[in-house]
Design goal:
Radius of gyration: 21 Å
Helix content: 25-40%
Strand content: 5-15%
CATH class of the largest domain: Alpha Beta
Number of helices: 10
CATH topology of the largest domain: Rossmann fold
Low-confidence stretches: 135-140
Oligomer: single chain
Shape: elongated
Order of helices and strands: HEEHEHEHEEHHHHHH
Strand order of the largest sheet: 3-2-1-4-6-5
Length: 274
């Protein structure tokens, strides 16, 4: 993270805009840990990806929440074309480089935690067959730039906060934004997720996709998931680790339907005013 933070900090002086990508299902949980490093004068717009996988009503409230806090925000499915309003807004930032009003391409950086859709957004901005444009004068070396219509876009690695509480990383694993096999066992992560969904009141809706009874303890529910998916050990015992991994991967990919882990009035990470 330290190297990525240094590169982004040095890059900011040469940028016109930062597009911070977050997962629409948990916009505060997936907030970039380098957000506090962005200069106050540099526009930062929030792109909530995977809006097709989130609760539509809650996501709409998130968009309004960010706008009320003075930040421009969009929520959409990055697999589809970008909203025209976003394209026009980026084009309108094209700065003049001299008193003669000679305009250069808008310099944009795409930032965010792992697996929130940064690469997909970059591809939408510049085209899937885009190639690097080489070094940009006066800009930190090691940054890859790609040219799009009216803009050049800097790619950046997904960055996680190594100092965040372990529970935060486990929750991010529910969305594939951190590696579950590194921060804990799959069955523990899955049981914590099921417990959270029970607390939030949408476990039954998620489990109904697989016709799994959502009553009982998280472990009992995970055992039913394992039986439903055929994740069994020799002797017929449920392979809870395999069941947990299958459950988390299905949940993160949207195979278990739409849901939101947090709402503006109940964020997992309470940093709304920052």
């Amino acid at each position: 993270m330290a190297k990525g933070r240094r590169q982004l900090t040095a890059l900011c002086d040469s940028l016109d805009l930062i597009l911070e990508v977050r997962d629409a299902r948990a916009p505060m949980l997936t907030m970039s840990p380098v957000s506090d490093d962005f200069p106050a004068a540099l526009p930062v717009w929030t792109i909530m990806s995977k809006a097709d996988l989130s609760n539509a009503e809650i996501t709409s409230r998130w968009v309004s929440c960010f706008k009320n806090l003075g930040r421009r925000a969009w929520a959409f499915d990055l697999r589809r074309n970008l909203p025209e309003s976003l394209k026009r807004s980026i084009s309108a930032l094209s700065p003049s480089t001299s008193a003669k009003k000679i305009y250069r391409d808008t310099r944009v950086a795409v930032v965010g935690t792992p697996n929130v859709g940064k690469s997909t957004l970059l591809n939408r901005l510049v085209g899937r067959r885009a190639t690097p444009v080489g070094g940009v004068p006066g800009v930190t070396k090691g940054i890859s730039w790609f040219r799009g219509p009216g803009c050049i876009v800097a790619d950046s690695p997904g960055i996680l906060d190594p100092h965040a509480d372990a529970s935060v990383h486990r929750m991010m694993a529910w969305l594939s934004s951190s590696r579950g096999d590194v921060i804990g066992s799959w069955d523990e992560i899955a049981c914590e997720c099921i417990d959270f969904m029970q607390f939030k009141g949408f476990a039954s809706g998620v489990m109904s996709v697989w016709n799994v009874n959502s009553d009982g303890t998280p472990r009992e529910i995970l055992e039913r998931v394992g039986v439903r998916l055929g994740k069994l050990l020799s002797g017929g015992e449920t392979d809870l680790a395999a069941a947990g991994r299958a459950f988390i991967e299905a949940l993160a990919s949207g195979k278990l339907g739409r849901f939101s882990l947090e709402s503006p009035d109940s964020p997992i990470i309470s940093r709304l005013n920052q």
